[in-house]
């Protein structure tokens, strides 16, 4: 998952003004664009990172291991001899950085390109011959547990196993489909296994053709980005090098809107780009000719005057890059409709609000009480400040709407919310506590800033629950921690991710020496024949600060432990949690801020004990505990048999787990979920919106975790009612 936090400009405004080039000037000047990028990134790291590591042999080894893993995780290209040859750089990368050299990357890039070209010659001969699925061979799918193959023959053997595994997966799918046809159609003659095996190999070859086509599109800059990210992630997990286009995608992700046509696309197994959804109100929806299930064959940017681009075999990201562009410009899509007819459709690009990113609310009627429910998938903001939506404003609006509907309590759902804008967290906290400190932020020189809410008085003072899980991170943890420290809300769910650091995205270009920058631009323009606009060498997202709860403890590593813990099927998996990353910054504690516990939760011990009793008797939560263990076992065992009978059994075990997980997501509850009156006109705009809303409400009705949260709030309301009578 991606976790993120953006610090308000009030804190970071003067930060970059103090950066210097001491690090660059201490060593030899870099030669070439890659070396300049490397040197600039490391200068910023040393001058601005919250806790910069010493650039020494230990750091060098971390970078070496990370680069090798990132570029060839499955060890299908490089062999043991390649590794041994490159290992000479293991303790030398630090010296190369200081000397303005990129020797390791140059050697790695050279050998990797060579090995990809060789591997491209392996797969067709292997797939030309039938596989024997009766043998008792197997494959290890965890790259970390694999050793490098010995020489060319060893790499070929690895490719043989990989391709056999993929063909076996396809063969199993085809055989399952044949069995279904035979069951559904009397007299249907099932295809022979030999025929299905051949079809499986042909399908895998098509996929491999596209795979190598994409690999061959990867250029030196793409591979250098991987190298640079290995360096930054050796500092900490959340510092990243962002090429110019990645910076754009990052900002689009954070702002919840983009310039495009409003069509959701999907690349099919045969490499075609298919329209799977048209966003209501978008340019595509307004134009009206593009339809769901249309196949986009070519993309033509009218303003460029260039010929249409045939996109067959393209990655979805590459297709999206071609379709998106400047607002008000026209993109022509050459499409094939579902009926086989073809059409060229011109669509004017415009701003598309991705509604699924934004806060929305419902009312849950249960046991005679009305509970407001607010779903917030991320703490989004608007980079451009041109009237775009922000999560703080949106949640405030939803709270006011719920109050007008007369709710007895509110649930704020932050499950799987990876974070976002810190200023919106502070604003949001004020909705529930009024004025007071929300979070403490410490910089690299131990200077601590306290960010207070600007609300004079809380907008909502009633019962409040905040739902979290292992996917709740960063900004989500700040809000949950603040509400917990203030005693303002009961936190319910699973232990959170544990990301307590602050990132800042900084353009690298201002820190490049003018003559070097001029040389880079000239070389870049020459490569493009002057037919493009230089967009810079990239940006750096680096960790500049660490945040702390108002009680002084950090959420880093430890996260937020809920007041009421609910079983989570995914809590034991390794990919969840900052604490499982060896490069993560440590937990620590600072002085508490001056705040007052509101003690708003009546008899938390009783609420917790009652919840435990309900959980113990709830089959969904019993199943969740069982699944946590099963999923952990499945994750640790990544050896798959290449024997069809054994493989089928393994698949059936996986399918059984999947069905159990579906049961967790489809609990039987007594929740009655309705829309807010104010939202009905927007929901009823067309049949697509109505259907989308119905699916959303149906999902909430099956949510066992939401059901238990509502139960807790009902208990809270009941206790308050009893006390008020007394």
Q: Could you explain how this protein is built, in words?
A:
With 726 residues, the chain is of the alpha+beta class. The chain has 3 domains: 62-93 and 103-224, no CATH class; 257-353, Pdz3 Domain (Roll), CATH 2.30.42; 355-505 and 542-725, 2-enoyl-CoA Hydratase, Chain A, domain 1. Helices cover 44% and strands 17% of the residues. It contains 24 helices and 24 strands. α9 crosses α10 (193-217) and α20 packs antiparallel against α21. The longest helix is centred in the N-terminal third of the chain and has 34 residues, at 151-184.
Based on CA atoms alone, the radius of gyration comes out at: 28 Å
The main sheet comes to:
7 strands, mixed
pLDDT < 50 runs, ≥5 residues = 8-27
The number of E-state strands comes to 24
CATH architecture of the largest domain: Alpha-Beta Complex
Structural class: alpha+beta
Number of domains as seen in the coordinates: 3
> How far apart are the termini?
49 Å
State the CATH superfamily name of the largest domain. 2-enoyl-CoA Hydratase, Chain A, domain 1
CATH level-1 class of the largest domain: Alpha Beta
Tell me the fraction of residues in β-strands, as a range.
Answer: 15-25%
Calculate the mean pLDDT score and round it.
86
Question: Which fold does the CATH topology of the largest domain refer to?
Answer: 2-enoyl-CoA Hydratase, Chain A, domain 1
């Amino acid at each position: 998952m991606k976790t993120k936090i953006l610090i308000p400009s009030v804190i970071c405004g003067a930060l970059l003004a103090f950066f210097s080039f001491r690090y660059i000037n201490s060593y030899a000047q870099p030669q070439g664009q890659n070396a300049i990028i490397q040197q600039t990134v490391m200068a910023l790291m040393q001058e601005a990172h919250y806790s910069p590591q010493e650039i020494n042999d230990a750091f060098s080894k971390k970078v070496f291991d990370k680069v090798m893993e990132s570029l060839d995780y499955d060890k299908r290209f490089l062999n043991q001899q390649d590794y041994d040859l490159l290992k000479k750089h293991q303790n030398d990368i630090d010296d190369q950085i200081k000397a303005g050299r990129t020797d390791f990357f140059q050697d790695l890039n050279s050998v990797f390109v060579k090995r990809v070209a060789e591997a491209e010659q392996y797969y067709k001969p292997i797939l030309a011959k039938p596989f024997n699925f009766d043998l008792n061979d197997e494959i290890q799918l965890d790259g970390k547990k694999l050793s490098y193959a010995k020489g060319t023959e060893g790499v070929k053997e690895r490719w043989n196993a990989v391709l056999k595994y993929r063909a076996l997966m396809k063969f199993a799918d085809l055989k399952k489909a044949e069995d279904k046809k035979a069951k559904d159609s009397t007299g249907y003659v099932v295809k022979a296994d030999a025929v299905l095996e051949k079809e499986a190999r042909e399908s895998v070859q098509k996929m491999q053709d596209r795979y190598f086509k994409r690999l061959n599109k990867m250029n030196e800059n793409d591979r250098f980005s991987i190298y640079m990210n290995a360096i930054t992630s050796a500092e900490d997990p959340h510092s990243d090098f962002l090429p110019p286009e990645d910076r754009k995608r990052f900002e689009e992700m954070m702002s919840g809107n983009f310039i495009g046509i409003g069509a959701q696309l999907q690349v099919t197994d045969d490499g075609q780009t298919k329209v799977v959804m048209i966003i209501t109100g978008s340019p595509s929806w307004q134009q009206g000719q593009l339809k769901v299930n249309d196949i986009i064959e070519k993309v033509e940017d009218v303003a460029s005057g260039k010929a249409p681009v045939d996109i067959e075999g393209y990655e979805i990201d590459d297709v999206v890059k071609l379709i998106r562009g400047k607002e008000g410009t026209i993109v022509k899509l050459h499409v094939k409709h579902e009926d086989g007819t073809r059409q060229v459709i011109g669509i004017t690009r415009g701003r598309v609000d991705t509604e699924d990113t934004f806060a929305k609310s419902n009312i849950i009627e249960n046991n005679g009480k009305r509970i407001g429910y607010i779903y917030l998938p991320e703490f989004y903001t608007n980079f451009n400040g041109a009237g775009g939506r922000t999560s703080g404003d949106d949640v405030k609006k939803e709270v006011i709407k719920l109050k007008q509907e007369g709710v007895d309590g509110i649930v704020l759902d932050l499950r799987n919310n990876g974070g976002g804008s810190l200023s919106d967290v502070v604003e949001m906290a004020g909705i529930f506590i009024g004025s007071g400190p929300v979070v403490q932020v410490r910089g690299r020189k131990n200077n601590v800033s306290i960010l207070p809410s600007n609300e004079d008085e809380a907008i909502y003072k009633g019962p409040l629950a905040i739902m979290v899980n292992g996917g709740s991170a960063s900004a989500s943890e700040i809000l949950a921690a603040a509400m917990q420290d203030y005693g303002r809300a009961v936190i319910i769910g699973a232990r959170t991710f544990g990301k307590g650091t602050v990132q800042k995205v900084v353009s690298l270009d201002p820190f490049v020496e003018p003559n070097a920058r001029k040389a880079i631009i000239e070389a870049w323009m020459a490569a493009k024949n002057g037919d493009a606009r230089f967009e810079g060498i990239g940006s750096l997202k680096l960790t500049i600060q660490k945040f702390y709860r108002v009680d002084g403890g950090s959420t880093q590593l430890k996260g937020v432990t809920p007041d009421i813990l609910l079983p989570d099927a995914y809590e034991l998996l390794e990919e969840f949690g900052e604490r499982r990353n060896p490069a993560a910054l440590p937990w620590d504690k600072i002085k508490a801020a001056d705040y007052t516990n509101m003690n708003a939760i009546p008899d938390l011990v009783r609420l917790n004990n009652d919840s435990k009793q309900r959980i113990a008797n709830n089959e969904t939560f019993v199943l969740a505990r069982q699944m946590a263990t099963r999923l952990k076992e499945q994750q640790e065992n990544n050896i798959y048999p290449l024997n069809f009978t054994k493989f089928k059994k393994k698949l059936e075990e996986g399918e059984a787990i999947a069905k159990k997980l579906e049961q967790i997501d489809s609990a039987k509850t007594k929740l009655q979920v309705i829309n807010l009156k104010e939202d009905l006109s927007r929901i009823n705009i067309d049949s697509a919106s109505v259907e989308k809303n119905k699916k959303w409400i149906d999902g909430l009705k099956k949510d066992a975790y939401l059901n238990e949260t509502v139960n807790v709030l009902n208990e809270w309301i009941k206790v308050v009612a009893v006390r008020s009578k007394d």
